[in-house]
Specification:
- InterPro entries: CusF_Ec, CusF_sf.
- This is Cation efflux system protein CusF.
- This protein is mainly β and 110 residues long.
- It is 12% helix and 37% strand.
- It has one helix and five strands, in the order H-E-E-E-E-E.
- The radius of gyration is 16 Å and the shape is globular.
- The structure holds copper (II) ion.
- The site of copper (II) ion has 4 residues, from strand 3.
């Protein structure tokens, strides 16, 4: 029981973000490891109603993706408020078990 509490506290302390991205730590099972991909692109359409953004993005070699223009869902929809078509952005996304990409972080680059 004591061991369980310590591990739980450790998780709360170090895993505070809504979508945890763990590197290689010992106490989280492999299934929790969530790879994120950092990519640059340009905003084409911001769709606040659905929480999506259409991006013309650079290739993602790790996923064998060519450069293309596509919609991404955004985890935190408030991040769309500052974006407009034509903005150059850097963004990070994850794929839940190889499924649809979900942007966890998106920022304009000056
Ligand atoms: Cu794409």
């Amino acid at each position: 029981m004591k061991r369980f509490l310590i591990m739980t506290l450790a998780c709360i302390t170090f895993g505070g973000s809504a979508i945890p991205v763990y590197a290689n730590d010992a106490h989280h099972p492999k299934a929790d490891v969530q790879k994120s991909y950092a990519v640059k692109g340009e905003v084409v359409v911001v769709d606040k109603a659905t929480g999506k953004v259409k991006l013309k993005h650079e290739p993602v070699p790790e996923l064998d993706w060519p450069a293309m223009t596509m919609f991404f869902a955004v985890a935190d929809k408030s991040q769309l408020d500052v974006l407009k078509a034509g903005d150059q952005v850097k963004f990070e996304f994850i794929r839940k078990e190889g499924g649809a990409p979900l942007i966890t972080q998106i920022n304009t680059v000056k």
